[in-house]
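Let us begin with a simple case.
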Amino acid sequence: MRPVLLPAAAVLIAFVPAAPAVAAPAEPQQKVPVATGYGGAVATVDLDATKAAISVLRRGGNAVDAAVAAGAVLGVTEPYSAGPTGGGFLVYYDAARRKVHTIDGRETAPKAMTASSFEGIPFEEGVTSGLSAGVPGTVATWDLALRRFGTLSFRQALQPAIEVASKGFVVDQTFYDQTAANAARFKDFTSTAKLYLPNGAPPPVGSVFRNPELAETYRELGRRGPGWLYGGRFGAEIVATVKRPPVTPGSTRNVRPGLMELSDLTAYRALLREPTKVSYEGLDVYGMAPPSSGGSTVGEALNILQALPHVGVHEYLEASKLAFADRNAYVGDIPGVPLKELLSDGFAKERACLIGDQALTPPVAPGNPDGSYGPCAQPTGIASPTAKEGPETTHLVVADRWGNVVAYNLTIESTGGNGIVVPGRGVLLNNELTDFTFGPAPGDPNLPGPGKRPRSSMAPTVVLKGGKPVLALGSPGGSTIITTVLQILLNRYDFDMNLEQALAAPRATQRNTAQTQAEQGFLDAYRAELEARGHQLVLNPEIGAATALEFLGRDKVQVVAEPSRRGGGSAMVVRSR
């Protein structure tokens, strides 16, 4: 046993075919972060989304049906993190075929975008603009997932979200705080101010927030299908908003128009991709391939740690530092990403040999994943910085009675996306294109380009043992997603924590940056030890907001959400016994 790393710290869907009666527990009226039971399980950041997914499972739907229903509800209740005009990545374990599939629903750049489109633009000015809006991938993801792996129609899967948007949800402190933090830019767009700043201020905590325009948008999507967005009237309205943002008269904000055309929407496709895979201590860890860097960076760090004789806090930070150096140098939506070599044991051993008693001085240089590995090769590449990446994403996990599992990250990038609501549609646009490197940066794999998908850190992850799932997890948090997922895996499998402890434990994130960000509990426990070894630490009050589930044997499953981060999450099972 290796040493411990950290201290432990309903919407009914009448049209789904009725399943056999089960002893369903009473619906909670408040978020509960941990649930254990049988017949299926769900964890999201939001009680309404979790209830919707559980309702789908109870009435005979499968994990994909439930995940899409929950994702659509999150577009209502977590609109600053998710929505039909965003994107994401979905990892699905198919129990019947014992196979892991992944769907790439990442947004794409318009055909008119070039490597220099963001050059000279301040980052925050790029965020709040039409220029930052990528071609949405979420609706295409839902459609592809349902057609290939689900049992519900597209229209049926949207019904819970329509009901929540119509009837409303209770504003909590997190929603209020996020609205207030965005109020200065929300007021600069007529459509956004009308929806999210009624009477000129954020909706108060405890009030009921309704979004009838989004309810109607979902109804039309259900009636007309995804083509209504990808080339139809809704798509035309998105393009018009991108090209002519509805700026409030008198606003002094410099709002740049975007480059999107209707033909960009018509050309969009969500893609089935092969997952990444590494073996770690007898487990098979599956994740997302590029343009996500989640699977490759988590996987490389696990390989590096497995090559070390001892793993503790110091080694965790150093492995993450090295993996991020290689991520920044090699991973993007480009041909020829050396994914096989980045995830090879030989490359991991070559990188692991650089880890000693003292911290490597960041930024460290990338390695050379060329297939020819010596006992301890010194890197000769040039380090590149870890670019800014919006922290607000959301993640959910679902398991059904048949053993199918979904881990799903969806996002609109920054909190509130680009700040612009499509007039009459009740939905914010994304700012995903600011995930590209702004440049100039010759040779950077993540420079923008026509049709490219910006590199992401989203890391929905499914872990198998003997071909069957044992764990699924993921988190929001921008580039801290990778370290959050990595740390939870280490907590669970190396450091003798159960799943609840693994999520609750205090976090730290090292992404090849001069300072390691850490939560207060981590600083309290490890600051003196790590600073003595050359690490520089700085407070980050909150890192990630994970959801996860674990199979406990005999069809029993435990599902876990955050107890407090980002307001806490909601976990439920179909039946408790």
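The second case is a distinct protein. As before, the sequence precedes its structure tokens.
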Amino acid sequence: MEKKLKKDLKIFALGGLGEIGKNTYVIQYKNEMVLVDCGIKFPDNELFGIDYVLADYTYLKQNQDKLVGIFVTHGHEDHIGGLPFLLKDVKAPIYGGDFAVELIKSKLQEHKIKGVKFHQIDNDTVVEFQDIKVRFFRTTHSIADSFGVVVTTPEGNIVHTGDFKFDLTPVGRGTDFQKIAEISGEGVLCLLSDSTNSEQPGFSVSEQRVGEAIEDIFQTVDGRVIFATFASNIDRVQQVVRSSLRYNRKMAIVGRSMEKTFEIGRRLGYITAPDEAFVSVNEINQIPSNQLTIICTGSQGEPMAALARIANGTHRQISVIPGDTIVFSSSPIPGNTISVNRVIDKLHRIGADVIHHKISEVHTSGHGKQEEQKLMIKLLNPKFFIPIHGEYRMLDQHVRLAEQCGIPRENSFILDNGDVLELSADGGQVAGKVPAQPVYVDGSGIGDIGHIVLKDRRVLSQDGLVIVTMMIDREKKQLVNKPTVVTRGFVYVRESGDLMKNVEELITDKIVTELAGGTRDWSSIKKAVIDVVNPFLYSKTGRRPMILPIIMEV
């Protein structure tokens, strides 16, 4: 007889599975629910006009009485960026490390959200609720104050690694191996682990090696150093600060996000330098080139970031001058490669010397590679395994690594966003789904742009628009004059006179036929116009523009 599984413990993701971004994970035991992270995803090239993508918070809104807390692993946008949108509708305390909490507070202030309770956690924090408790273990990542999360339930320990790597010579605080060993000694029912670099063999490069590469640059470069990196990578910024001080360079901090995180980093003690080591962007032309470092945003080729504006010649205070060395201390996020290459090309064209990760070890990933992922599995020795934070092929590869580490294939679960896994010591099964469709943010609109609108934008971008204006006398059932055809992004009208004339004649004949048949329904006439124009234009041009009929009644 098949053993009936308990249904008290549920694990699911609202985002972060089958994708890079919007990491939002839920662990629920009976009537107590823990949310681990609440991130955004940046749009790909097919999401025309979309600013960013959120997870669907419907389940959290409907069950907010069960939500005991939001636990933040670290302060990257794909882990905290959704909080201002969630907290407009859901009230819950936030638990996170110092740096993450300061970044979230700044973000909520921008969105004018007040009344949120914050609890700053550290490696020894224990948060107890009725049936569950939550603890933390320090990890190493490309941002300060990164933690893994342990949710202890009556069924066993659920461990969420957060984003991690094993860097034995980190710049900031390192991984707490002893704490991980203690958790392993208690027993781990299920491990949720970062899959980002599951396709990359070996170990990741240490941040200390990046520091040596930065040191080499400062030792050899004679002109200005313009250093672009992620604003959140405070340890990397501190290495630039250290090298600048060593070689007697003043520093200018450029870019809104860089200025904000730099201020937080200095306040929390992650960046240490005397005030006199810094100059404002308005003073940089007064400093000799070999005595100046500019630390800025834009390593991902973002069009409005400082580095892109410098490359385009549109930055108000900074222009590239002969002898400048520009360092890209990052590797392109998937989808950004073209933008990054374009900025690098422009910088070369105007005479800068450009250094990036392909020609010098000026960057290392914050995500562990295969050997580090296997080490985490072996250290924690879970009974069940759920790969998270990655596209499907990454999740699948991570399961294969877990299999190599002794986790039976049947004990691993590759889930989709929304899949609810019911888990106990006896086993697990997917038992239902919760809403987890992507929610699009466009300007001030949240969730009002759906697949139909995006499809229309795609058609407009690819094949253009044809607007057909018709004046119809309803009483006489006849056209008042010839239809007017206007195009945008389809053909150049002055060079396509015959085509437009044929379209007008086709429409005229069709409307006359429709009206003669007794049709008085304008929507039927519009559909008839689309049905006759669409195949005709395709036969002549091979394109299917959006056709927008407009009827003016007289």
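The radius of gyration is 29 Å. Residues 188 and 382 are 5 Å apart (CA to CA).
Keep these points in mind for the review questions at the end of the chapter.
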